[in-house]
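Model it.
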Amino acid sequence: MRKTEISHPLQGIDRREILAWIWLLAATAAATKATQLTYGFVRASRAARQPTSFNAGTVADLPSPGDAPRAFPDGRFWLTQTQEGVAALDGVCTHLDCLLGWDEQAHEFACPCHGSRFDASGRYLTGPAPRSMDRFAVKIVNPEGAVVASTDFAAGVQAAPLAGADVDSSASLHIIVDITLEATGAPVA
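Modeled.
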């Protein structure tokens, strides 16, 4: 009978060399995790310094119902006037967070990434998006700072109604958009 020798895969490597490799891998993993945590902290602190409330102009500056919405790139939202009132629509697609653009010819919002489309009031029309556009809280304030009209997402009010506002003094009424208060759009049926 013949004796065959079975070789071990770690033959020729001593215990110190194996421990050195284990320590190197552990140190690399720790450095990677520390880098991720540091990046997250820096990114969050940078985001915290950005404004969360925007003065979007006066009621007189609003686009008329049926007109193209007004873009606010600093806040990544669109201001529009719907049948219900003034709405601030989140400028990010509800599918995969691409920035939406306004298609002037079709008179609707269009996602350049995957083709989702929304009407001028933010309602879902077509594409892979799971719901209508999200909305931010809107307040209409008079020169003294008193709130004349506002959204109330808890009560189902998705736009600040202009019916209660004094339209004659629309040049002095300001629109304030708070991007920290957000309501998700209606799901696609």
